[in-house]
Amino acid sequence: MFTETLTAQDDVVGIACEGKLTEDDLKRMHALLHERLQAEAKPGLVVDLTGFEGYEGLAALREDMKMDTTHRNDFRRIAVVGDSKWMEWGTSLAGLLTCSEMRWFGPGEKEAAAEWARRG
């Protein structure tokens, strides 16, 4: 599942992912991003993967890749927060799919991640 975070800020969208994400979770996340992008052109994005455990099947992974490529030009900066080396590696790989500047932050750096995403 995922939850929206940073709701008091218009210039930064925040999403926290927990457990395994389903295809339906990702479709709802995609709809949320579309909604937030209507309100603010080129916001920052903070994705908290601290509690993320992966995907519920290939359909969920495909939906995530679809979302990444659809929004490859929509965010100024993308900050990814997490605590696993494979997530850091995945962030580097995802950086190849987007034109946005991306940066990895450790789990204790959530505020710094939001500030960095906002300054872009």
List the helices and strands and how they pair.
Blueprint: E1 2-5, E2 12-21, H1 23-39, E3 44-55, H2 58-70, E4 77-81, H3 85-94, E5 101-105, H4 110-119
Parallel strand pairs: 2-3, 3-4, 4-5
Antiparallel strand pairs: 1-2
Helix pairs in contact: 1-2
Structure description:
The chain has helices at residues 23-39, 58-70, 85-94, 110-119, and strands at 2-5, 12-21, 44-55, 77-81, 101-105. Helix 2 (58-70) links the parallel strand 3 (44-55) and strand 4 (77-81). Helix 1 (23-39) runs parallel beside helix 2 (58-70). The N and C termini lie far apart (28 Å). The mean pLDDT is 86. With 120 residues, it is α/β, with parallel strands linked by helices. 28% of the residues are buried. It has a 5-stranded mixed sheet with strand order 1-2-3-4-5, with helices on both faces. It is 42% helix and 30% strand.
Helical content band: 40-55%
Q: What fraction strand?
A: 25-35%
The end-to-end distance, rounded to whole angstroms, is 28 Å
Summed up, the helix count is 4
SSE topology string = EEHEHEHEH
Short description:
The chain is of the alpha/beta class and 120 residues long. It contains four helices and five strands, in the order E-E-H-E-H-E-H-E-H.
Keyword list:
120 residues, globular, alpha/beta, 42% helix, single chain, 5 strands
